[in-house]
Design goal:
By secondary structure, the chain is mainly alpha-helical. It has helices at residues 2-13, 15-21, 23-28, 33-48, 57-78.
Amino acid sequence: MFGALGLGLANGFFKPLLLALALPITILTFGLFVFVVNALMLMLAAAFVDGLEVKGFSAAIWGALALDPMKLVVGMFFGL
């Protein structure tokens, strides 16, 4: 529960800023750099939440790849 709260706070506060700063590289990589930003948000949430642990950047990338389809389905369910 706290992991979801930490990830939500990181996505709410820091992700828009990082996406705006990384816009040129995101355009150059055809949007694939968004996965790196999502991985950084996952690592940031893990740094602040005790029960959430991410072992390295590659694990964060895989976690971001796993979370993105879930966010899409939940967003479609709630109409976001």
